[in-house]
Amino acid sequence: MKKEYTFEELGYFAERECKAIKDSLQGYSYMNFDISWSNWAGNCTLIVATDYEAEEKEIKDFFLHCALGMIFQIKRTVE
Questions:
Q1: Dihedral angle sign, alpha carbons of residues 73, 9, 18, 56
Q2: What are the residue boundaries of the structural domains of the chain, listed by start?
Q3: Kind and range of the H or E element at 71?
Q4: pLDDT per residue as tens, the chain (79 positions)
Q5: Do residues 46 and 7 touch, judged by C-beta distance below 8 A?
Q6: How far apart are CA 50 and CA 41, in angstroms?
């Protein structure tokens, strides 16, 4: 069963930003991230779910690591 982790500490995103994150990282890595968001009047909080067993900090840290890695990968592709 998947457990959800909210990234309130990152602040709010626009829905288009959440869609871009989902397009890039949905199902990514051995943690098989499932990405969604909560939209409150255009202010979206990112939510990541996984069935991987680990502490919340480890899952959140690894998701951020993957997200940064994806940015670097996209940048290298563009250059």
A1: positive
A2: 3-78
A3: helix 56-78
A4: 999 999 999 999 999 999 999 999 999 999 999 999 999 999 999 999 999 999 999 999 999 999 999 887 766 776 6
A5: yes
A6: 26
Note whether 24 and 77 are within 8 A (CB).
no
Report the alpha-carbon distance of residue 4 to residue 46 in Å, rounded: 10
- E-only strand ranges, 2-41: 3-6, 34-40
Q: What is the pTM of this model?
A: 0.87
The kind and range of the H/E element at 21 are: helix 15-25
d(CA 34, CA 50): 6
